[in-house]
Design a protein that fits this description.
This protein has 386 residues and is α/β, with parallel strands linked by helices. The strands form four sheets. The chain has a six-stranded mixed beta sheet, with helices on both faces. Strands 4-5-17-16-8 form a five-stranded mixed beta sheet. Strands 11-12-10-13 form a four-stranded antiparallel beta sheet, with helices on one face. Helix 6 packs across helix 10. The protein starts with a helix and ends with a helix.
């Protein structure tokens, strides 16, 4: 265990340098040039670590390019296939990297994506290097996957993740630990819903009876959807956007709603989605039709016995390193959900400690890098040997 901490410490300087270079590139979802530039950097570092690298360009369902999925592999003599999963994309617009380059202050690093997920991704690569340096490579194959579209539900990366997840015995996901140090042992499922309502325009003063008000139908549907909160334990339905109408003297002939559905359990997720479909099919205003589109549906990650075994094993490795390990469930979804759906045993939050993701205050705890890289490397080693 001491050797793991020492080897992780030996790579801290390289980690800082890589983090600065990666954070200096704008990689918001859909910013293909920056995402490919960042993938080029990771590819160079993976090749230097003795990994074989494959790249595949991916696109969204409409055909718009999203960047490249990078898959790096290192083979060993063992029997277990272990997957490390991280992502390159962030939520920030072009120009953010120049406006907020990596800054280190009072033991923390700040910058776009420093915690979500560039710091975690680099911790995965550092763990690969630690095990290689120590000659502790008892796995059959260690795979690092870097996706360009996790922040928008991985619409282009899903086929690759499905394949990798089905091949892996264990998937260790590199989202950073919660701000209190917790690993992530379960995630809610999420569906992004788009509802389009079409009515009939009319003069609001002269002949309103000839109209069919899509705005009114959307308002009533909003109330009906909000009433679903609390019907099933842990299910939340949030109407985040309602757009309708153009002029006050015209009966609105069109409306659009964007809705967020989340649930802890697959059965409740399916039941809530079915009820939403029923409500959409029965608009509350005569003459108004509604259509529902479900974008990037991501099922809940419900931990089973194997997932709980992996969480307990992480705790034992942490105890040997003197690194406290606790875990929690979170309402946010990630690629861990998709890997669990594909059949892998999953544990998430294995990057360094970080917080304030998706905000200008996003931070990474620099003192946590060495112990968390050692924890990840130790967990890989234990899984491979068992």
């Amino acid at each position: 265990m001491e050797a793991l901490l020492t080897a992780a410490g030996d790579r801290l300087g390289a980690y800082h340098e890589r983090l600065a270079r990666l954070v200096a590139v704008d990689t918001g979802s859909g910013q293909v040039q920056g995402l490919r530039e960042a993938a080029d950097l990771v590819q160079t570092w993976c090749l230097a670590a003795g990994m074989a690298v494959e790249r595949e360009a991916v696109a969204d369902p409409a055909g718009a390019p999203l960047g490249d999925v990078l898959v790096a592999r290192r083979r060993g003599p063992g029997r277990r296939r272990i997957l490390l999963a991280g992502h390159l994309d962030t939520v920030f617009p072009p120009g953010t990297a120049a406006a907020r380059p990596l800054r280190m202050h009072d033991g923390r690093a700040y910058g776009p994506g420093v915690s979500d997920d560039k710091g975690g991704l680099l911790a995965g690569l550092a763990a690969v290097e630690v095990l290689a340096a120590l000659g502790r490579e008892e796995y059959a194959e260690l795979v690092l996957v870097c996706t360009p579209d996790e922040e928008i539900g991985s619409p282009g990366s899903r086929p690759v993740l499905r394949t990798l997840g089905s091949e892996a015995d264990v998937a260790l996901c590199l989202e950073c630990a919660r701000d209190n140090g917790d690993l992530v042992s379960a995630r809610k499922g999420v569906a992004d819903l788009e509802i389009t309502l079409r009515g009939r325009a009319a003069h609001a003063g002269i002949e309103p009876e000839r109209g069919a008000n899509a705005l009114l139908a959307a308002a009533r549907l909003t109330v009906a959807l909000d009433a679903l909160n609390g019907r099933w334990p842990g299910v939340t339905v949030n109407v985040g956007v309602l757009e309708a109408g153009g002029r006050p003297n015209v009966v609105a002939d069109r409306a659009r709603m964007l809705v967020d559905l989340r649930a802890w359990r697959t059965a409740e997720y399916a039941a809530a989605l079915a009820e939403i479909r029923r409500l959409v099919a029965e608009p509350a205003v005569t003459g108004v039709r509604a259509e529902l589109a479900v974008h990037a549906p991501t099922p809940p990650w419900e931990p089973g016995p194997e997932d709980r075994w992996l969480t307990e094993l992480a705790g034992k490795v942490g105890a040997g390193l003197g690194v406290p390990v606790s875990h929690t469930a979170t309402g946010g979804c990630a690629d861990a959900n998709l890997l669990a759906e594909a059949g892998a045993t999953v544990l998430d939050g294995l990057g360094p400690i970080g917080g304030d993701d998706h905000s200008p205050a996003e931070w990474l705890d620099l003192d946590s890098v060495v112990p968390r890289v050692a924890l990840l490397a130790g967990l890989i080693d234990e899984v491979a040997r068992r």
